[in-house]
Amino acid sequence: MNYNFTEIEKKWQERWEKNCSFKAQNGGEKEKYYILVEFPYPSGSGLHVGHVRSYTALDSLARLKRSQGYNVLFPMGWDAFGAPAEQYAIKNHVYPANMVSDCIATFKAQIKSIGSSFDWSREFSTTDPDYYKWTQWQFLQFYKAGLAYKDEKEINWCQKCKTGLSNEDAAGGVCERCGSETTKKLKNQWMLKMSAYADSLIEGLKDTEFLEKIKTAQINWIGKSVGAEVDFKLKDTEDTLTVFTTRCDTLFGVTAMVLSPEHSLLEKYKDRISNYEEVQKYQEAAKKKSEIERTDMTKEKTGVKVEGLKAINPVNDEEIEIWISDYVLAGYGTGAIMTVPAHDDRDYDFAKKYNIPIKQVIAKNIVGTGDSAIKEDKPFTDREVVIAAIKHPEEDKYLCVKNKKFEWINFVIGGIENGESVLEAAQREITEETGYTDIEIEKELPFIYFDNFFARHKDVNRHITCHTVVGKLKSLNIIERSKEESDLQEVMWVTKDELIETLNTEAHRYDAKRVLEDREVYTEDGVHVNSGFLDGLNKEDAIEKMLEFLEENKCGRKTTNYRLQDWIFSRQRFWGEPIPMVFCEKCGWVPVPESELPVILPDVPSYEPTDNGESPLSTVEEWVNTTCPTCGGHATRETDTMPNWAGSSWYWIRYMDADYKEGIASMEAMKYWGQVDLYNGGMEHATRHLLYARFWNQFLYDQGIVPVREPFKKRVAHGMILGENNEKMSKSKGNVVNPDDMVKNYGADALRTYELFIGDYTKDAAWSENGLKGCKKFLDRIYRLQNKLNSEEEYSKELESEIHKTIKKVTDDIETMNYNTAVSALMILLNSFDKQSSISRKDYRTILHLLNPIAPHITEELNEICGLGEEFTKSTWPAYDESKMVTASYEIGVQINGKLRASILVSADEAEESIKEKAFENENVKRYIEGKEIVKTIIIPNRIVSIVIK
RNA sequence: GCUUCUGUGGCGGAAUAGGUAGACGCGCUGGACUCAAAAUCCAGUGAUAGCGAUAUCAUGUCGGUUCGAGUCCGACCAGAAGCACCA
Predict the structure, then answer these.
(1) pTM here?
(2) What number is the ipTM of this complex?
């Protein structure tokens, strides 16, 4: 039986349009439900199968919710400002607006062809003056609140696009649009004070149901870090050099200061800096480097010592050298750091290269466990000891001693006696304990550490300060040890590889690790040493105490820093919303009066960005020259435009009341629709768009313009549709699938069904045309099912329970966006229907209704031609009855010692005794339990019987 | 390096709360219909052994908890994404 899906689809799409079937009402009795899918950029390449996936998924949910009696807002619009349209305009010398409206028309027709139930009465484009009037108006609100300001700033500059980029758009030093490397350029820019909302953006996440990974991505992006600012006096000046640190407790370990090359103090004291030329050379080199080069962590650090300037450490008045290096970022913290090479890997690298001293201020603090755990009731003794890691003269082995009584294996260890140096003590102990005399100590490891334990052999607690030396034997010359020593321990040689496993105590293993890795810097926590009033404290207490000190002495304060910076809001582009500000020689920057909005974007002779970094708008003199709203004198318009993120930062609000003339939307409409219940979009927008939009909305809320603080209740992200070869679809790879072709060849319903069936909605999935054919086949079988129709009006007895189960399954699955299993459940139900000789009219109508959100056209058609009832767009979703879902009998498995050995048929209400009996009667079960003792029998109703035998 | 996520047949993927692993679909094999093909229908399809009942193995690897682990715990391996010289 053939049917013309193209005609059927056309017929229903026209009918829905004529009846305004999907128009949402503002207000009314019904409960509201707001479903939002990110509006597309109407590019010339048309709709992608990826769009089809998310639009269809949310469309199915929208259709379900409507059928369940919700007032569903499911709108669509166009995000049409920005680079792609402009690029196209430059290339083809056409006015972007014309191109945009052509693309919108194509996109819209394509979206309609897949049967999406969008409420087109609320459609708009961000490029409509009626829309961007309000984008501009909102910018003025930011300005009035002091959150929009103009600032001379080093911005990310893309040579190729000839425009400034926000930090977000130039992440990693790469231009988001063209992929080329960005450089820095000093420009006067409009900024939005997003940093003021950093904490609020973190806090607000608590009130949302975003995916965990989206929340973490946002928190990482904001990058909150709590620490302190510390003021170092600049020697022989009145100035101070302020640094930001999260570890003010290491202040006693500071051995240098490092400034970013851009630091302002350098310019100020250039007369004092004796090597200023060298400094300047480095500054220029740093400026030329791209962000990528500067932040490449694999490359060696570089820097220049600033001769003639010194800083004074506020805790001990030590004079400290000052350096510049590009590993210190100008834009974070104060653009200067204090260097603690002993406890920071980056500082260590820098210090090693330039011979900056390394000073230990934190010592590892080992605390014994088990037999060595401290005993509270025993006395404590303090000791200074030396531990000697001594190498064999020829082989790669280390000298150890084994305690005969306790079987401990250790390096040679011994107390340092009064007046003795560490090296002398080591020499003496080695000869005493092992008899070897020809010893060469190479060095003492720079860091001491502490070991706290209960010494069983002496029955006291010990707190020992450990000094470690490394060396070797020059020969195996040996003298006889005292009897006492030779009775107590034997000498042994342990190979390098076995050392760590062989040594008994954590302290010796720590030494072994240090010796073998030849490391000096240890960033692990411990207790403070060489730190005056912090000695003996742990990290947390030391930070607190140091903060107290800094504040008392007025040389520092607790501070929080964020990675998130203010939003650079200017673009030197033509195709964007004009920023509604004018500059007057007398009055400075003056906002365009709200009554004069919108500031219409004029056409320009050339869309090309200019070489001098000005927007093409600057060439339209009659537009640029205007009068000052304040004094009436001559003024010029701001010629930069807004970034393309601006229009998408409030579009969901406009959908609530798209024709409203008095504001962004009426308060009544905004209160009615409230939050977006479900917002779908790609993972690529998890940080930027979502943060901008939340920031914008939180601001509007604080101004009393919108009624909710967090705009989106729940955010979900769809997975990508990959090409048949499992790679991202792209023209160059030739694996692009055009949805139009699929609609033409298989029908919109088949395409929809397939894209929902393809796999987990949130994960990427590879396209398969065979899979699509399979879904077409499924719909064909649904179509042919009409031949089995009898005249019964109730559910068929044989199918009733399965139908109820399927209603529940499909309802739950669509609501939780598990579309693939919803489709599969319907396939299973169809298989059951097909096994029957005939099906009732209610059976058929129900499967059609359940399938309707997924394949709306063919189900409506079948419902109509078979005269089964009202259109599904006007019908109430089928209800299920839990009590009818139980099956009369079912099979359950029987396990013996955890292995499945049989399955038995039991009835729904069968007693446990009877189930047990049936299990034991089974032939295969009998075989296994014969002659064995039955330890226990576990019966889990509806699931399994588990028999344990011995 | 840090954070997050993911590892199941030839493939896409199922498996509420730990309870018969591999649903459903694709592909493949065989058969029916047909002069033939397409379409459709029927049967089979994790691996190994066996005619078969059945047995052994199997959810990245190794351990653990449990009558029972894809699912819980620990360690590791692999891949993906995000952040990254952020002091």
Answers:
(1) 0.87
(2) 0.94
